[in-house]
Inverse folding.
């Protein structure tokens, strides 16, 4: 069972790590609870998820793909399952920062190799990567990435 505090903890981390980022794409956002938590903290958020039942937040009921026009300055995902890699690829393509809290891989890779693979995926696309941990139960490690400061 995922920790119910995860949305507030992640939102707080995002505001601290990326204070200038106020337009956020929340990918694979499920019900939209991270959207709520970020909106309470002054962000404009669009949640992307295939699900139809969700909270009354700004919500795009569709798969998130690399073709999504970039109207954000940060792209994030809490336990984004099959959308984990596309978040990194999207950040690299559009040169925006990203933050993900990975859980399961999309190809049965065990957790630690999956985390290493994701960090490598970001660095090989020219992003600078850092890992931190949220103080919560379950999958709590966060991979943060941003384009290098020129
Ligand atoms: C484990 S749930 C996590 C939901 C939410 N972030 C949370 O922490 O409760 C994974 C979600 O990813 C969504 N998802 C998977 N691939 C996606 C994609 N390419 N685009 C948008 N949503 C996707 C699923 O519909 C599901 O709601």
């Amino acid at each position: 069972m995922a920790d119910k505090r995860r949305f507030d903890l992640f939102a707080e981390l995002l505001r601290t790590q990326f204070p200038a980022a106020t337009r956020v794409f929340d990918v694979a956002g499920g019900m939209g609870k991270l959207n709520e938590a970020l909106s309470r903290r002054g962000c404009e958020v669009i949640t992307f998820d295939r699900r139809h039942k969700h909270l009354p937040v700004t919500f795009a009921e569709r798969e998130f793909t690399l073709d999504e026009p970039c109207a954000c300055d940060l792209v994030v995902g809490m336990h984004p399952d099959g959308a984990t890699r596309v978040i990194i690829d999207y950040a690299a393509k559009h040169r925006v920062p990203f933050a993900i809290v990975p859980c399961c891989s999309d190809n049965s890779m065990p957790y630690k190799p999956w985390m290493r693979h994701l960090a490598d995926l970001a660095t090989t696309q020219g992003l600078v990567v850092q890992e931190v941990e949220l103080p919560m139960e379950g999958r709590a490690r966060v991979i943060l990435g941003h384009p290098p400061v020129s």
Summary: The pocket of S-adenosylmethionine is lined by residues 2, 27-30, 48-51, 63-64, 78-83, 86 (CB under 6 Å). The longest helix spans residues 111-123. The helical segments are 6-17, 33-39, 84-94, 111-123.
